[in-house]
Amino acid sequence: MKYVILIGDGMADYPLPELGEKTPLQVADKPHMDHVAKEGSNGLLKTIPDGMEPGSDVANLAIMGYNPRKYYTGRGPLEAASIGVKLKEDDVAFRCNFITVYGGRLIDFNADHISTKESSKLIKTLNEHFKIGRFYTGVSYRNLYIYPGREALKVKTKPPHDIVGEPIKDHLPSNGKIAERIKQIIKESQRILKDHPTNIERSKMGKRPANMIWLWGQGQKPTMETLEEKYGLKGATITGVDLIKGLGVYLGLDNINVPGATGYLDTDYKAKGKYAIKALQDHDIIFIHVEAPDEAGHAGNIKEKIKAIENIDSKILGPLLDELPSYNSFRLTLLADHPTPIKVGTHTQDPVPYAICGENIKKDNISSYDEESAKRGSLGLSVAWKLLDKLIGS
Ligand SMILES: [Zn+2]
To answer: Once rounded to an integer, what is the mean pLDDT over residues 10-21?
Structure first.
């Protein structure tokens, strides 16, 4: 049996007055998504456990079959996996953002989307200066700091995107001796980066300088069974997003690199569809993750969100549905990882609609894949980390 999990990041939404109180999923032209709903079973999926942040990492970990409460250890370890840094037993991985600070306030959590090349120069300088731990270059503003010692786990840190515009002194790491040390590193980074040639150059080009680092989201290497150990299935991920790639590494999945998969609105949908079909030949289960609807949700752009949904439908799901019947048996599930409602501009906790079709999956008289229709589906409401049990086990 072949299994396909197609995830439209942040695809679910709330009704919008601009759309006559309908959601983007309800108005989008998406015959293939509706076909999955019509031919299969529908329901609502709770992807974010109560009390946890509605991040894509948490949601996708759940979708891949692991209870985030038990297995989620932070963004740092995922970042480490995605750039190929192996964590030792006692290592604690922090996400290291380059940020812009003016007048003691955090102005920009990504330092004007600093390039990877520029980041790597700054990382080099940081490593020359700081003797505790080690910095690693990631992608753009998203970099990594490894602290050798598990005491760093109890340091309280704040995500920089949550404190934009606020005085940094109110949000620096706290809770104990190591927190003081981490705080010192952050503060001192300002002195080191302020007049760095890379920043002087950036200022000349009218770009915001990366004049400080921010360490947060730390965690240890998660210990989990791979998907193959759990289900005996060989799996792959197709995604443009580092955090999801990182998850895949811990779960023993092959990351299929798709040229042109950017993780943004301009992602090459057709290429994703093509590589997914190719990956099916030598994998039993594939996770296809498309970031574009989430980006549109964050930008509050209704038109782009509808377009992203329609692109997933026609360029990824359509070709897959053509291809899958050539295998003996298959099951496909279509879902969002969390809503990114246009009105809210960021992720919410609400359950998402999902549909499963394929071998021995019963129809339940739902004719559209959307938030409202899913409420009437036969699958009711369930938690996401049990989805694979349902998909594979039944
Ligand atoms: Zn997401």
So the answer is: 98
Does residue 373 contact residue 366 with C-beta atoms inside 8 Å? yes
365-387: pLDDT as tens digits: 999 999 999 999 999 999 999 99
Chain segment 162-195, per-residue pLDDT in tens: 899 999 999 999 999 999 999 999 999 999 999 9
Query: Which tokens in the block code for residue 281?
Result: 């030949």
Q: Which of 246, 266, 6, 215 is nearest to 93 (CA)?
A: 215
389 alpha carbon to ligand 1 midpoint, in Å?
A: 22
What average pLDDT does this structure show over 319-346?
A: 95
Amino acid at 40: G
Using CA atoms, how far apart are residues 237 and 130, in angstroms rounded to an integer? 36
54 C-alpha vs ligand 1 centroid, how far in Å?
8
- The packing angle between helices 292-299 and 302-311, to 10°, is 170
The domains of the chain are located at: 2-72+223-393, 81-219
- Using alpha carbons, select from 269, 260, 310 the residue that is nearest to residue 288: 269
The answer to whether residue 241 scores a pLDDT higher than 90 is no
**Nearest CA-CA partner of 188 in 160, 221, 211, 170:** 211
User: Which CATH number does the domain 2-72+223-393 belong to among 3.40.720.10, 3.90.700.10, 3.40.50.1370, 3.30.360.10?
Assistant: 3.40.720.10
Residue in 242, 334, 351, 327 with CA at minimum distance from that of residue 288: 334
Supply the mean pLDDT for the chain: 95
CA separation for the pair 49, 37 (Å, rounded):
25
For ligand 1, the distance from its centroid to the CA atom of residue 294, given in whole angstroms, is 6
**What separation in Å is there between the alpha carbon of 130 and the centre of ligand 1?**
34
Distance CA 155, CA 218 (A): 8
Name 108's bridge partners. 100
**CA 310 → CA 276, 289, 293, 341, distances in Å?**
18, 15, 10, 17
Dist. CA 61 → ligand 1 center (Å): 11
Convert the pLDDT of each residue in 263-303 to its tens digit: 666 778 999 999 999 999 999 999 999 999 999 998 999 99
Q: What is the pLDDT of residue 70?
A: 93
